[in-house]
């Protein structure tokens, strides 16, 4: 038993003992090898023994330097080298990384097509204008090149004048101008004379299918005069297409072409230059794509041309006058429209045929075919409402009335829909049946944000057969006016550098908001050097005005203004005093307008608003002189006693639906230019002479809407935050304005759930 126990212990301890023994053995061997390296510098040893010991040295001591035997002798002759101190130069700040303004520039993406029209002083205002009107809205850039021009340039045209009427010189200058200004921005360059009609969409479609890395000279090939030179040039009357790669290769030889090549025609001169230095001849087709053109005969009528060559042409030449240019444009526009309709019908048939194979069958193809499927609401709050209408009335009114007269644009819309419905019915059933409208029984419409305006019409129709028999029937028609392609509407250029003059009307009831307003405005504007001027308008009633020397009700406000001016020496805060019994925005602005230049940008603000740089920039961008005025919809806090009932008030309030709402009933704040105000105010003169009270019953919003042709832009403005304030509604204002003021006060109390909670707690308290 003892022996077996001993064996068990040895088995468990055996590996440990063996490991420790091996460790000691290996450590002793490594120490002996390391000590032998100390004798490598003994010069009495033979070369062979030194070599053997060097081979045996497997390691060196830490912090020791391995070297030859000469290192020991060199240590005795070592002399330290003194390195003079040099002051470390501070590193220059790293260069700021330049990033392109547009992603396309950084990625090297260029626009596809540049179009240059070769014109002259005599034809710029006639044929040049006609070309511009027919192609400019289809292309990104069209430049007109001329030798000389008149002092006045036609509106909406980009004209480059070379200062000389020599045609060869003008062609040289045109190519040089393109190389200097646009060679890095476009892939294809199209040059054409102003007496040619251009089918712009077809030219764009052509370049979209061409490879941009080819040296291509494409147009209508023509033989050189004399026929001695190899190759062909592109005749300029029909226009020609030049690739960017071709122009880049030609760039270094352009000066040689000007000096060495003689020619009577500019297109022939350019063709010689291209062939001589790039070995590229004019072609009319490339990679299966053709450059079609058509020669227009004298006194020909485009509507009577039936040849396929004419219908597929990219350019038509020569065009003698602007009237013929417009006739050609009308013909080709109708032709493209008809082709578009045919393509739509073809696609609809294809969708219908493919939908049969779908899982849901024909039900997968929504009506109308090709138009987006109707909006599907996820909750009952997203259900789209249908508006009911007849030929005289509509049962959904802007002012909330249950029924109102169908007039204006709504009436035009209904008439147009009924006319289209009748035309489509006759198109479907003629010549077997002919239908005439008797009356509209029921009409429904709704706006679907995904697909457009939908209509359902119940029409009373008189149906007449080919044999003359007639009968009155009722037919239900479903129509859709789909949303069209989104277009960017051109707007006048504006900048964020304009100074904003902020006008703050102040009455006795609003003095308590001044301190908070000035603190916020000083932080957001004065400390950031915002390009804005703050002006206070102190409004006194007659009694307060008489006591101003003894007891100025705005003395504390004026002292705060003086204190801010001392704190910020570069800031001046002007103020104007006004005495009136009935405060009126128009009367106040009449006084302020006379004290400022006509190009002044005003922001008529409220004392309870928090104004910051973000909003002021939007005020600058949305107010366009002689074009548009801006009425922002501010975000107003709810009454804190309702929104935070029995809760501590938060220090900062976020733009969430529980904290406030966008006050759509408030029109007090506005941005506009003084010139626009003065011109609109002038339109009121006749009405003011008949009724002076109109100045007190209207506000500035109503004035711009009724008396100006400016765009009145109104939008929610999250950067304009306003504290809760109960507005004292002026009963002298018009009924509509007074109603808006009352409604604004009611909606500003709190949300429905918050008001319901307060009422519930009050009822519980009363019941107990």
TrEMBL record:
GO cellular component annotations of the record: Golgi cisterna membrane
Gene3D superfamilies: 3.90.550.50
Class of the enzyme per the UniProt entry, highest EC level: transferase
Keyword Membrane listed: yes
Domain of life: Eukaryota
EC number annotated for this UniProt entry: 2.4.1.-
Keyword vocabulary terms for this entry: Golgi apparatus, Membrane, Signal-anchor, Transferase, Transmembrane, Transmembrane helix
Recorded topology in the membrane: Single-pass type II membrane protein
GO molecular function, one term: glucuronosyl-N-acetylgalactosaminyl-proteoglycan 4-beta-N-acetylgalactosaminyltransferase activity
Keyword field contains Transmembrane helix: yes
InterPro entries hit by this protein: Chond_GalNAc (IPR008428), CS_glycosyltransferase (IPR051227)
One Pfam family of this chain: CHGN
Record's subcellular location: Golgi apparatus, Golgi stack membrane
Residues forming coiled coils: none
Family statement drawn from the similarity comment of this UniProt entry: Belongs to the chondroitin N-acetylgalactosaminyltransferase family.
Protein name, as recorded: Hexosyltransferase
UniProt organism field: Periophthalmus magnuspinnatus
């Amino acid at each position: 038993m003892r022996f077996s126990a001993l064996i068990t212990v040895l088995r468990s301890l055996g590996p440990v003992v063996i490991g420790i023994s091996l460790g000691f053995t290996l450590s002793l061997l490594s120490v002996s090898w390391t000590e032998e390296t100390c004798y490598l510098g003994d010069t009495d040893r033979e070369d062979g023994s030194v070599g053997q010991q060097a081979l045996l040295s497997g390691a060196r001591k830490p912090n020791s330097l391995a070297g030859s035997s000469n290192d020991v002798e060199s240590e005795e002759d070592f002399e330290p080298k003194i390195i003079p101190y040099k002051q470390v130069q501070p590193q220059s700040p790293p260069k700021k990384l330049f990033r392109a303004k547009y992603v396309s520039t950084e990625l090297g993406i260029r626009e596809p097509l540049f179009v240059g029209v070769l014109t002259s002083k005599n034809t710029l205002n006639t044929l040049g204008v006609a070309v511009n009107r027919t192609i400019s809205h289809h292309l990104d850039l069209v430049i007109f090149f001329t030798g000389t021009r008149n002092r006045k340039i036609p509106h909406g045209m980009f004209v480059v004048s070379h200062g000389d009427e020599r045609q060869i010189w003008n062609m040289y200058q045109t190519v040089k101008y393109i190389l200097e200004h646009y060679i890095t921005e476009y892939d294809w360059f199209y040059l054409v004379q102003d007496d040619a009609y251009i089918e712009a969409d077809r030219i764009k479609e052509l370049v979209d299918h061409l490879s941009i890395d080819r040296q291509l000279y494409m147009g209508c090939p023509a033989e050189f005069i004399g026929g001695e030179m190899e190759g062909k040039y592109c005749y300029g009357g029909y226009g020609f297409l030049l690739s960017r790669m071709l122009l880049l290769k030609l760039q270094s030889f352009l000066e040689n072409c000007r000096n060495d090549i003689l020619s009577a025609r500019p297109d022939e001169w350019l063709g010689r230059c291209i062939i001589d230095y790039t070995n590229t001849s004019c072609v009319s087709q490339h990679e299966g794509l053709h450059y079609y053109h058509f020669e227009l005969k004298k006194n020909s009528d485009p509507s009577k041309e039936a040849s396929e060559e004419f219908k597929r042409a990219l350019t038509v030449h020569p065009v003698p006058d602007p009237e013929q240019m417009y006739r050609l444009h009308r013909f080709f526009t109708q032709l493209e429209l008809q082709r578009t309709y045919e393509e739509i019908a073809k696609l609809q048939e294809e969708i219908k045929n493919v939908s049969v194979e779908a899982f849901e069958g024909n039900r997968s193809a929504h009506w109308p075919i090709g138009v987006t499927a109707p909006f599907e609401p996820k909750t009952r709050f997203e259900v789209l409402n249908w508006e009911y209408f007849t030929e005289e009335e509509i049962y959904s009114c802007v002012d909330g009335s249950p029924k109102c007269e169908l007039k204006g644009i709504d009436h035009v819309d209904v008439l147009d829909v009924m006319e289209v419905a009748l035309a489509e019915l006759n198109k479907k059933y003629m010549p077997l049946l002919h239908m005439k409208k008797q009356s509209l029984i029921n009409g429904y419409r709704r706006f679907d944000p995904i697909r457009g305006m939908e209509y359902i019409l119940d029409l009373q129709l008189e149906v007449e057969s080919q044999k003359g028999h007639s009968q009155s029937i009722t037919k239900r028609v479903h129509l859709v006016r789909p949303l069209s392609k989104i277009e960017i509407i051109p707007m006048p250029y504006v900048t964020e550098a304009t100074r904003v003059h902020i006008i703050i009307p102040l009455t006795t009831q609003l003095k308590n908001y001044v301190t908070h307003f000035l603190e916020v405005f000083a932080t957001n504007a004065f400390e950031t050097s915002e390009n804005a001027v703050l002006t206070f308008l102190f409004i006194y009633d007659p009694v307060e005005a008489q006591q101003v020397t003894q007891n100025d009700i705005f003395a504390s406000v004026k002292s705060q203004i003086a204190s801010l001016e001392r704190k910020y020496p570069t800031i001046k805060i002007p103020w104007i005093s006004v005495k009136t019994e009935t405060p009126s925005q128009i009367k106040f602005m009449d006084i302020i307008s006379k004290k400022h230049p006509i190009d002044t940008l005003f922001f008529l603000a409220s004392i309870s608003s928090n104004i910051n740089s973000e909003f002021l920039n939007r005020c600058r961008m949305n107010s366009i002189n002689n074009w548009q005025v801006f009425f922002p919809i501010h975000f107003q806090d709810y009454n804190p006693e309702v929104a935070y009932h029995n809760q501590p008030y938060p220090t900062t309030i976020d733009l969430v639906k529980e904290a406030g709402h966008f006050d759509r009933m408030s029109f007090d704040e506005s941005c506009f230019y003084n010139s626009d105000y003065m011109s609109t105010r002038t339109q009121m003169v006749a009405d003011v002479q008949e009724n002076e009270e109109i100045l007190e019953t209207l506000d500035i919003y109503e004035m711009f809407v009724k008396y100006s042709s400016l765009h009145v832009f109104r939008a929610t403005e999250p950067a304009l935050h306003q504290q809760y304030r109960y507005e004292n509604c002026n009963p002298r204002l018009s009924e509509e304005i007074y109603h808006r003021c009352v409604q604004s006060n009611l909606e500003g109390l709190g949300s429905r759930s918050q008001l319901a909670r307060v009422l519930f707690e009050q009822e519980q308290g009363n019941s107990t």
